[in-house]
Design brief:
Blueprint: H1 11-31, H2 39-57, H3 64-71, H4 81-101, H5 110-121, H6 156-169, H7 176-190, H8 197-210, H9 217-220, H10 223-228, H11 230-241, H12 252-289, H13 296-304, H14 311-318, H15 322-334, E1 338-341, E2 348-351, H16 353-362
Antiparallel strand pairs: 1-2
Helix pairs in contact: 1-12, 2-3, 2-4, 4-5, 4-8, 5-8, 6-7, 7-8, 7-12, 11-12, 12-13, 14-15
């Protein structure tokens, strides 16, 4: 028994990949190592969106704002304790992906797959984190629909070994997006663990892309797209998998779906960047007009992103002491640009209606510049 193989190239798909490459080069110029001041907030927002997109598919839903706080070490009241643990664990796995992507000595192995699964599922003892499944399983597909039958557990260790070998050295001349799509499909189809296989497949896909070195994992993730198109995601998986594990099946439509998802997400990220430049210019001008220190620009910018701002966030980003951070944030609150929510250690700041109106009235969002 073998794993699914990459389908043959087609002129149409190569054309789509060329368009995607252009978009991703654009993003790398503006979100790469020579990052703009606002990149940190966008990176954290992208990580929160990816986490919500992936975990919501499996029923652990919460808002992007809540996920943002959880990934920063907070405990937003609107997220259940179980959801909090699942989201925090997913964030840890993606942090590990980011570290491994920068490791020049990294090699794919079965142990890598086990480690990532452990990080994702360690809050769920019933998933046997980091241990391959025993016995037969059926994957439900919904009422009245035939379940999917993964390979028998006896075949799983060899299949995971084969997948790890392929991840390390197989089809390396093919486009990373295509290889990542096939990694995703193979993990979710082998179904090597009791639970968490979908989350693992999406993390492995991000890892394959991150190893390319063009962008950080959160900026190449398609989890937000999958979260918005969950029905289509499951439908295309059902189509290519069939009733039981059969790696001889044609999986071209799955690769097409993933490429479309990447193009959609990269297009959204392009607009993110254009608006980010305009928003940063607006916040810089507002700070200058009111005689604020330059460091307050980042606080205003994050608030306008719609993300809660805490003292810890701000002092880390601005590299200042806590008393200074308190003074700055309270100054913005007194001047009407931020609203304070909560109390004590749970205090956070959000954009006030005054700040949002000033940004909207500036018209700069709709006039965001085109950047080459």
């Amino acid at each position: 028994m073998a794993i699914f193989a990459i389908p043959a190239k087609s002129r149409e798909l190569e054309s789509r990949l060329s368009k995607l490459d252009e978009l991703r080069r654009y993003l790398a110029r503006h979100l790469g190592e020579s990052a703009q001041p606002w990149t940190g907030a966008l990176r954290r927002l992208a990580a929160a969106e990816a986490t919500v997109g992936s975990t919501s598919i499996e029923g652990y839903g919460t808002s992007v704002e809540a996920a943002f706080e959880i990934l920063a070490g907070g405990h937003p009241p609107q997220a259940s304790e179980e959801t909090h643990r699942i989201i925090a664990a997913y964030g840890q796995a993606m942090d590990r992906v980011g570290a491994l992507a920068d490791d020049s000595h990294f090699l794919w192995s079965r142990q890598t797959v086990l480690e990532l699964h452990f990080l994702i599922c360690h809050p769920q003892a019933e998933a046997r984190p980091g241990r391959l499944r025993d016995g037969s399983v059926l994957v439900a597909r919904g009422p009245g629909r035939e379940p999917y039958r993964p390979p028998e557990s006896a075949a799983v260790p060899d299949l995971v070994n084969e997948l790890a070998t392929w991840l390390e050295s197989g089809d390396v001349s093919r486009h990373p997006v295509v290889r990542a799509a096939m990694a995703h499909l193979n993990v979710v189809s082998i179904h090597p663990f009791r639970d968490g296989n979908g989350r693992l497949a999406r993390v492995v896909q991000s890892m394959v892309l991150a190893k390319e070195g063009l962008l950080r994992p959160e900026f190449v993730s398609i989890e937000p797209y999958l979260g918005r198109h969950t029905r289509e995601y499951y439908a295309i998986l059902e189509e290519v998998q069939g009733a039981a594990f059969d790696p001889t099946r044609d999986v071209s439509s799955w690769v097409e779906f993933c490429i479309d998802a990447h193009v959609s997400e990269a297009t959204d990220r392009e607009q993110w960047v254009r608006v980010a430049y305009a928003r940063h210019d607006f916040c810089t001008r507002l700070a200058t007009e009111h005689g604020y220190p330059e460091r307050l620009v980042a606080a205003l910018d994050q608030a306008l992103l719609g993300l809660p701002l805490t003292n810890a966030d701000y002092r880390r980003d601005a590299d200042i002491a806590s008393p200074t951070a308190v003074q700055d944030l309270q100054r913005l609150r007194r001047d009407g640009w931020l609203d304070q929510q909560g109390g004590g250690r749970s205090v956070r700041y959000v954009a006030s209606e005054k700040l949002q109106k000033a940004w909207a009235d500036s018209g700069e969002r709709s006039q965001a510049p085109y950047l080459s």
